[in-house]
């Protein structure tokens, strides 16, 4: 991939290293980092090194009458302007320039526009979020957004400022993922968590399904988001209970189970630690499940102490992690008395140092 923003935009820090070398470098780093554990051979999943990101946020840089997209710089912590971005979906990279040109023509939309976020699906539909650092009035704003929508028919628009949100028709997309020859549909709501790299998401879910082929009992999932893993995985289990802190994501998860014809999942909007407490309290809700298997996909901070203790009570653990540092810390506890059956690297974030991993652990008798 080439990009005119390489070398100045801070998002692609590995821009000087060919893609295959980046993968090799990350692979070696992971093997090295986890050498204290008895790890199986690392499975490596790669994808495209361009147009792989389905969501992105760009700051807007105002300089007199000029208005440009900006990102934090590679070398200094200040905004640098960029002309293009080639890691985002083609539908985003194609529309970025005409979108900003159209916004600039309208003084009301342009003034104090702070950032623009894009979320795309595989059909090329987009949610475009305009974020302002100014007060705006809904009725005043609406005609400006209708005019934009008229120009960009494949886009829906959301307008935000702190504590306030406006959207016209909808603030979500329906995404389709292909997993093991089946198509799963997902409602993805703007500003809730969705996996940024759809092709890698398909590979991660497939890997998790393959890893759970032999598992008996029910499945507990923490940090389930909109049901990204939960929905395909529910086909492997009798019953599933899945939790997540964001009510909006849980609302999407209910919807997603429904549109995929799945009826064996209970979704709960609660924190991982609060859910762990239910077990300590011998809650009747939890007693209905045969608690042998758990899937976790926490944020970068990994597991808190309470949640780690809860996860440690399961026979089989599938751990998806976007931060090898906290994964390593958590494995120090979770690998005690367990065999590490699988270890995978999913290259979700080419051109960056970020690494997504999957680990499967099974209690040794
Ligand atoms: C890395 S995302 C994974 C989401 C989902 N598994 C997916 O693949 O789309 C982590 C999720 O954890 C949720 N989360 C963050 N802190 C949490 C907590 N303390 N308890 C439960 N969920 C939390 C976030 O809202 C987010 O949806």
Please tag this protein with its features.
single chain, 365 residues, alpha/beta, Rossmann fold, OB fold (Dihydrolipoamide Acetyltransferase, E2P), 2 domains, eight-stranded mixed beta sheet, seven-stranded mixed beta sheet, 17 strands, globular, binds S-adenosylmethionine
Could you describe the 3D structure shown?
The protein is α/β, with parallel strands linked by helices and 365 residues long. The protein folds into 2 domains: 19-48 and 197-363, Rossmann fold (3-Layer(aba) Sandwich), CATH 3.40.50.150; 55-173, OB fold (Dihydrolipoamide Acetyltransferase, E2P). Helices cover 30% and strands 30% of the residues. It has 11 helices and 17 strands. The protein has helices spanning 19-33, 90-105, 107-110, 138-151, 198-211, 230-233, 247-259, 272-280, 284-287, 305-311, 324-334, and strands at residues 42-45, 55-63, 66-72, 79-82, 113-120, 126-132, 155-161, 164-167, 172-179, 182-189, 218-222, 240-244, 265-269, 291-296, 316-321, 338-346, 356-363. The chain has an 8-stranded mixed beta sheet with strand order 1-16-17-15-14-11-12-13, with helices on both faces. The protein has a 7-stranded mixed beta sheet with strand order 4-3-2-5-6-7-8, covered by helices on one side. Helix 7 links the parallel strand 12 and strand 13 (265-269). The chain is globular, with a radius of gyration of 22 Å. The relative contact order is 0.13. The model has no long low-confidence stretch (mean pLDDT 96). The protein binds S-adenosylmethionine (SAM). Residues 193-195, 223-225, 228-229, 244-246, 249, 271-272, 297-299, 322 line the site of S-adenosylmethionine (SAM).
């Amino acid at each position: 991939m080439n990009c005119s923003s390489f070398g100045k935009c801070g998002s692609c820090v590995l821009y000087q290293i060919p893609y295959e070398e980046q993968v090799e470098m990350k692979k070696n780093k992971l093997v090295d980092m986890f050498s204290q554990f008895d790890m199986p051979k690392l499975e490596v999943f790669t994808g495209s090194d361009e147009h792989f990101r389905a969501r992105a946020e760009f700051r807007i840089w105002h300089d007199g009458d000029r208005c440009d997209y900006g990102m934090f710089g590679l070398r200094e912590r200040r905004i640098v302007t960029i002309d293009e971005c080639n890691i985002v979906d083609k539908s985003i990279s194609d529309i970025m320039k005409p979108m900003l040109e159209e916004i600039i023509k309208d003084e009301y939309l342009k003034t104090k526009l702070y950032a623009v976020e894009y979320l795309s699906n595989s059909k090329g539909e987009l949610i475009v979020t305009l974020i302002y650092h100014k007060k705006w009035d809904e009725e005043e704003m609406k005609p400006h957004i209708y005019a934009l929508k008229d120009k960009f028919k494949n886009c829906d628009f959301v307008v935000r400022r702190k504590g306030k949100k406006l959207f016209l028709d909808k603030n979500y997309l329906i995404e389709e993922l292909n997993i093991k020859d089946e198509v799963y549909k997902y409602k993805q709501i703007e500003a809730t968590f969705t996996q940024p790299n759809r092709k890698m998401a398909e590979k991660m879910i497939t890997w998790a399904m393959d890893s759970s082929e032999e598992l008996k009992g029910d499945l507990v999932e923490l940090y389930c988001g909109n049901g990204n893993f939960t929905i395909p995985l529910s086909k492997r289990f009798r019953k599933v209970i899945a939790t997540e802190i964001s009510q909006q994501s849980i609302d999407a998860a209910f919807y997603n189970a429904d549109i995929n014809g799945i009826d064996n999942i209970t979704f709960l909007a609660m924190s991982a630690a609060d859910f762990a407490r239910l077990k300590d309290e011998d809650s009747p809700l939890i007693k209905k499940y045969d608690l042998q298997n758990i899937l976790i996909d926490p944020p970068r901070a990994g597991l808190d102490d309470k949640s780690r203790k809860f996860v440690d009570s399961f026979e089989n653990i599938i751990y998806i992690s976007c931060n090898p540092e906290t994964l390593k810390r958590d494995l120090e506890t979770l690998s005690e008395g367990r065999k590490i059956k699988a270890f995978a690297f999913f290259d979700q974030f080419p051109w960056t140092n970020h690494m997504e991993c999957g680990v499967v652990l099974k209690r040794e008798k």
